[in-house]
TrEMBL record, chain A:
The active site is at residues 91, 265. Pfam families: TGT. It is an enzyme of class 2 (transferase). The keyword Metal-binding applies. It comes from Rhynchospora pubera. This is Queuine tRNA-ribosyltransferase catalytic subunit 1. Heterodimer of a catalytic subunit and an accessory subunit. One of its GO terms (biological process) is tRNA modification. It catalyses: guanosine(34) in tRNA + queuine = queuosine(34) in tRNA + guanine. It is found in: Cytoplasm.
Automatic annotation (TrEMBL), chain B:
One of its GO terms (cellular component) is cytoplasm. It is found in: Cytoplasm. One of its GO terms (molecular function) is tRNA-guanosine(34) queuine transglycosylase activity. Non-catalytic subunit of the queuine tRNA-ribosyltransferase (TGT) that catalyzes the base-exchange of a guanine (G) residue with queuine (Q) at position 34 (anticodon wobble position) in tRNAs with GU(N) anticodons (tRNA-Asp, -Asn, -His and -Tyr), resulting in the hypermodified nucleoside queuosine (7-(((4,5-cis-dihydroxy-2-cyclopenten-1-yl)amino)methyl)-7-deazaguanosine). Its main location: cytoplasm. The keyword Zinc applies. Keywords: Cytoplasm, Metal-binding, tRNA processing, Zinc. This is Queuine tRNA-ribosyltransferase accessory subunit 2. InterPro entries: QTRTD1, Queuine_tRNA-ribosyltrfase, TGT-like_sf, tRNA_ribo_trans-like.
Amino acid sequence: MALQFEVVGRFNRARASKLTLPHYVVQTPMFMPVGTQGTIKGLTNSQLEDIGCQIILGNTYHLALRPGAELIDELGGLHKFMNWKRGLLTDSGGFQMVSLLHLADITEEGVTFQSPVDGKPMLLTPEESIQIQNKIGADIIMALDDVVRTTITGPRIEEAMYRTLRWMDRCIAAHKRPDAQNLFGIVQGGLDPVLRDICVRGLVERNLPGYAIGGLAGGEDKDSFWRVVAQCTAALPEDKPRYVMGVGYPLDIVVCSALGADMYDCVYPTRTARFGTALVPEGVLKLKHNAMASDERPIVSTCSCMVCKNYTRAYIHSLVTRDAMGSQLLSYHNLSYMMRLSKDLHMSIVEGRFPEYVRGFLRTQFPKGDVPQWVCNAMEVAGIDISSCCAPVPV
Amino acid sequence: MVGLQDHFFIASPGDSVESLPEHGGTNKIGAAFETPSGRRLINPKDYMDIISSTRPNLWASLADEVPAWVTEKRNRLSIDRTLKWLDDCLSLDQEKGASTLGAVVGGPNIEHRKKCATEVSMRNVSGFYLGGFGLGESIEERSALLNAVTNILPEEKIRFVSRLGLPEEVLQGVAAGIDLFDSTYIYHLTLGGFALVFPLDILGEAPEALLRNSSNDYTKINLHATIYRKDTSPIVDKCSCYTCQNHTRAYLNHLLNVHEMLAQILLEIHNTHHYLGFFRSIRRALKQEKFELFRERFMESRRVHLMEAVPYS
C-alpha cells in the first residue's frame, strides 16, 4: 500500500479526507480531469496548478500506443515525461478498448482487439495492463475489469462480475510496485444489487488500497445509478478511498459525495468546453448563443478564475466559433469550476455546514424548486433535508 | 477586451495571416483584402470607424499596397490613392495625427518611393508605415527601396514595416532604419512544428563556436522528427522561456505526434521568446555601436551549413 487515507470531517455518510499519495497530498471529495494523451487539452501544467488540480488521469491505452510504455519508462515515468509534479492516475485501458474498438472481444484471457496502428490482432491481459501501468508509474493504477454497460441485461453481467474478481487476482499477482503505486479494484455487477454485493465482498477480501465503483455513467437511469452508488459506499470499508468512475455532472458529484464517495473523473467539463459550453452555478451557459455577443459580464461573476477575471462573455462568444483559444479559455474556466466544487465540498464537510451547502447548490440549480425525484430519494438516504429546495407538489 | 491592458497596440489595415492586401480588387472607393469571409473592400471612413472603436496606440493609414511586379501606371495610381486616403483618414482623425503612421508606397520604383516619402512627410503624422514590402519582391531589390524611403523620412519619427519576418530580413530592415516589425514568421514556424534554435549571443560567442552549432540548419529544428523521441533536453539549452524551463524535446515530439493543442502553445511560447530575444540582441548591438559586425557574424553563421554541404569544391 502506498497511500494514507485520513478522514478529517463527516456528515452522515459524506466524508472529507486527506489522502496522501507518493507524489501529492490530496483533499477529497475531489474531481480529476482527464488528460488522455499526457496533457489536458490546451492547458499548461502551471495553469493546472493555478486551477488547483490535484490528480489528473492518463489513458493507458492511448499512452501505450503513443509514445509507448517502454519509452515512458526509459524517460523516467509519466510524471517526469510530462513534468507533472502532483498526482497521476491511470486506468487499465479496458474501457477505451471496449468503447473505441468495434472489433474488441472479451475472453477469459483478456481483451482481444485489432491494433488501430496496423490491424494486427492484439491481446490486452490483466498482466499486460498492470505491466504497462507499472512502466507509466502513476500513483494510482486500476485493475483490468470486465466492464459491461448497465443498459445490457442477462447472464453477461454475472459473467463479467465474476471475471472481474478473477482478473483482480491476476492484476495483484502481476503488480511489481505495490510500494510506489496503489492498485484499486473496480466493483462491477451492473444494476443488480446481489451481484454488486458479491463483487464488493470479493474485492474487500483482497484488502486493496482503494476501491472504484465501475460500470456506471453509461446511460442508465439516474434512479438506478444512485442506488448502486449508495449500496457500494455502504458496503465498502470506511478507511479506504472510494472512486466513482466516469462521474460527471456537478449535480451527480454532490449527490455521490453525500452518499459517501470521494473521487471522480469525467471528460465532461473539458469536452463541453470545446462545444462552447461553460459550467455555471445555475447549470450551463452556451457561449455560442447570440445573446452572448453583447454580454459584457464574466462567465460567472463570483468566479475568481483567470478567465472570469479577464474576459467577458462577449469576447469568448466571438472566439468560440473561430479560434482554439475559445475552447481553451472555457476548459480553463470549467476545470476551475470543478476544482472549486471539490474544494467547497471538502470545506463544507470539514466546517460542519455540508447540508447548508447542498441546499444552496440545489436552490441555485433548481430555482423553481423542480429538484429531480432521484435527487430527493438519494438525499433522503444520505440524511440531508432538502425539503426547503423542493417546490410543493401541486394537489 | 483581450486582457492585455499593459501592452502596446498597433493597427494596420491588413492582417499578415488572414487578410492580405489584394491590389487587383482595390479601386477608387477603397482598399481590397482577401479575408476568411471573402474579399472585402474598405474605405477611409469605415476604416476610421474601426480605429476610433478599437483605440490602438498607433495606426497605419489606409494604403493601396501593390507588389513589385505591377505596371508603372498601376504603381502611380497606388501612390495617388494612398496619399488621398491618408488625407481622408487624417481629416476624420480625432487625434489629428498624433497616433498616425502615414503609409508610404511606390512599389519597385525608387523615384516614386522618394516622391511618396516626401509627400507623406509633409503631413502631420507621428510616424510612417512603409507599405508594399513582403509581397513577393526579392530580398536584393528591397534594400535600395527601403533606404530610398528612410533617407528622406525625418529621423525622429517611427518607421514600421510589415511582412519582413526572416532574421535576415529583419537585419536588412534595421540596417535601413526601420523601428517596428510584424510578420507571420513565428506563426508559420509553430504550425509546422518548428522551434527556433539559432544562437542569440552572436557578438559574445567566438566565431568558431558559432560555426560548430549542432542543430540542423542552424536556425530551427522540426520537432516532428523521430530523432527527438527520446531527447530529454530542452529546445534550447539555458533558454529561460516557460517551455524550455519545464519541458523536453521528447514531450513536444509526443504532443505533435498525437496532435495535441498543447504542442502549438508550448512551441509558440518558445518561438516568440526566442525571436524577441533576437530583437533584444539587435538593440544591444546597436547601443554598443556594433550592429554591422553583428549582422555580418549572423549572416556568416547562417551560411556555414551550406558550405559544409559542398565538401568537394
